[in-house]
User: Which sequence fits this backbone?
């Protein structure tokens, strides 16, 4: 597909750029994850990226991590349809995410389990990264394999910058746990600062994309020898003409210094549920062995 | 335009639904604001909504409030072009937001002013809402009229749920101020809980849309007599088929109980920079006098 | 709105470019019309453009002209909804166009009237332009005001390059009338060739956009002193990244010589049902008096 | 991917529906082809569909067939970039189609070859289908394998309903050949009428989609036992909310009777340059042997 045009070629170029990233020495690769990727059944692919160390760090919406925990605890996402009477679903306590269905009560159960875990911890102030690490450790004991358990095992940090904007945050209401999101900023900036080179893979845009780019900018202020992100990939269904950060081009990001003007970069306009299976499959075929950096000494 | 089809009619319907909202007794209207709305010159319109009490509460991305403060402090957003060599802009320290330009050094200045203000406050833990209130009070002293000064004056609370994901958050690094985003959740839930009826106007989607809907859900758990949001409007350039929350239909939201099945609701697929001038102009012509609720006793 | 950003500013720029076009001496302005613009209630606005001579020539899909005739003959387009059971509509013989409804039997009636008119003409070969002129003349006798009757009256030629791809074409099955679409090409090329300057206003893309650009290219081959189109406006909901002609940028058109590199040009990403009422209203306020060229001596 | 959500699942469902179509006895499968599919390098895949008789009939924009002939005659489409100075390309006589480049002079050459062929034929009136058949026969003699030569060989008819709206049409200016597009309507209606079942695969929308649906409607009027299209697939980057035919849902098409209410149908929102390689690869793996109908006795 490298020899085609339009988004087909971009998709092939994305695989190429990712591969080059993986072959780069001394690089830290951060993934931004937004959209209802986990409910759409892509959780296993994200876990695969973690296991094969195709990413070193994950920045996610709270929703995706919550749905991942939901699955780890045995909750399901059902194949539904987008053509349906939602008032009827409501009457049956079924929540719809486009063509995916889920049981409302299971979400409440997942929320309660997170809350219970948080209340049992001794009072503390921590980053979202640290809380998710602790939760991953707990769930790894008897939950099913999932993103957070895999990330725990492979020591890949997960940040959720808008933690309170998700059912995970809600689970922590009335606990003694205090999520300090400025600490998340400090931690990811440390990661960016130590990295000789940086790569970014954005699934969608939103807070995760901005959070990663912001961290890069702060790291640049701290280390004058640093340039913007060196390898950048985005899969998005947004468009540049709307002016928002999610759909903004990597060219625009160059003006800010977020992305290096010499970066290898490609944006693919496609639903991630199409891109991720193809890209992961292509990367898998290459059998890359990568020695990945340990980013954070987790306690 | 009510007698046309497609998005032209939806735009007219949005004005109708908003008008009905304003005539409803005992309603609390919350606006969600995402996308680079302020850099695009829409700040005055948001201030207008606040002044005329067409909204009672604002949930925003950090970016929009940061850019608003930037303008209040004398910073500019320049008319640029989207067809430009970004490496050249970079060399001139000019940041681009689609066809808007801004000086990087002025952003750094704004960030430093926020940081200075935060460091001068005595150590405290507060919600983003409270911090923005204090900052608005300060800037109202000699800054130019802006969203936060107008909101301060008219006692309209502003929430920024992903506070650390913006230059505002960055400004607070190394301060004694601690933003507790769970407190933001508690505060907005209180607002939702007290409201007999609720209206929501979403400019874009993102965290603000989710945060408002989440607050509604929690409020419903606390008050069993509550139903979902009664009036809902969204202006968006996203689409339902991508499965994300931003573009999801209000029908889908009914299945979750976020929106009442009897709600008056309309989604308009259009760039907000086109919709807002038209809608605000249409609402202005009606000369509505609305007695608005005081939502939060601000300290 | 000229002092805003994103598509709001583009919309204001479109009005500016159109105004400059109207003030240009010796210019021929061609409009390309695609999408279900007439069913969406925009017919009156197109007629307004013709009457005020804001366009000199119209290139349209067959569908729009067919729906215009349907209205001229008393047919209706009803305000419907896009959330509906289509099998039920089918059972009631109601055709849906997003949120517009129409009676199937009235479409068949309109088709039969066109067929009857065609069969009563003496056998001939003509361009779509000529046939629509004759039909407009006929309908002007007792039909309601519409695009084709206004175009007839104001001597504005209408081309339908994909004539057989519409119910209008179907109406001509089994008639002695022969639509020669190469003659349409020749006629519009004559118009382009004689024009000192050319302006193009595209509502959507599709065949009309390509047909106009193609005519310009042929005219350039015939007159070496000619450059590409001088003023170009497009309202579209398509995007450049899909690679198609409809969403392609005017920059791309420069590489082909379709648009002059010095052209005043603007593309606005917006539903035409929003853009057209605003743009027509803004142009109306200027009270421009334009002496328009007579393009084709109609027989 | 059948067990995922959003467009990833739709893509898998499209493969399923196509496979069922191929296993259906007595079915005629028509493909609609729009967008710059051939310049984007998809020509071989369309030829593959013809060879493996995964389609029985092709309705295309003129552009795609012209670009196919261009390639058959040795013309190239080069891998370019969408970030480029188009005035510079213009100065080099290079035409851009998003990220594909081509030499303008080769297009003129292709046009001249078509014109020469047409002028050498004895004067006649024919459908676009017949002309393309004759041209395919000629090019098959010594041109490279391409869509039209494959279609000639495998007796798959190709219709171009907006023939004059393409460089192919232009090639015929000043020839004695007369393309009668009503004859195209009659021919495809015959095909639809004879078909016990019908399947439609739309690559994009535009004239080809409308032309096929229109043919179905006429066929239904002629044979009262007929229902709408039984199997329908569309790959599109358009969206329903804009109200146009290209992006309209198959549900909407049910109201018109274009698509049967019991049809197996799926619309995938994705760039065809991504969908086609995946879908063709999946279908290839199944090794289906299909006995295809001979649709038109070609002369």
Assistant:
């Amino acid at each position: 597909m490298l020899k085609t045009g339009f988004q087909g070629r971009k998709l092939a170029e994305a695989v190429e750029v990712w591969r080059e990233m993986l072959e780069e020495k001394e690089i830290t690769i951060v993934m931004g994850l937004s959209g209802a990727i986990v409910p759409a059944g892509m959780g296993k692919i994200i876990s695969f990226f973690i296991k094969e160390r195709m990413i070193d760090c994950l920045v996610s919406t709270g929703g995706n991590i919550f749905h991942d925990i939901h699955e780890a605890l045995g909750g399901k996402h059902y194949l539904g349809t987008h053509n349906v009477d939602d008032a009827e679903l409501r009457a049956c306590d079924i929540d719809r995410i486009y063509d995916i269905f889920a049981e409302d009560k299971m979400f409440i159960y997942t929320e309660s389990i997170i809350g219970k875990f948080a209340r049992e911890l001794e009072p503390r102030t921590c980053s979202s990264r640290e809380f998710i690490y602790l939760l991953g450790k707990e769930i790894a004991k008897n939950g099913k394999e999932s993103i957070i358990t895999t990330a725990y095992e492979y020591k890949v940090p997960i940040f959720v910058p808008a933690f309170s904007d998700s059912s995970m945050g809600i689970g922590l209401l009335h606990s003694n746990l205090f999520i300090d999101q400025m600490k998340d900023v400090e931690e990811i900036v440390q990661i960016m600062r130590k990295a000789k080179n940086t790569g970014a893979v954005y699934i969608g845009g939103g807070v995760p994309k901005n959070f990663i780019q912001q961290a890069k900018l702060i790291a640049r202020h701290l280390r004058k020898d640093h340039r913007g992100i060196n390898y950048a990939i985005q899969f998005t269904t947004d468009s540049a003409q709307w002016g928002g950060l999610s759909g903004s081009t990597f060219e625009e990001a160059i003006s800010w210094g977020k992305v290096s003007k010499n970066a290898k970069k490609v944006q693919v306009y496609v639903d991630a549920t199409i891109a991720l299976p193809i890209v992961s499959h292509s990367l898998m075929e290459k059998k890359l062995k990568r020695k990945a950096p340990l980013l954070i000494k987790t306690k």
Q: What stands out?
A: The two ends of chain D are 45 Å apart (CA to CA). The mean pLDDT of chain D is 95. Residues 6-23 of chain D form the longest helix (18 residues).
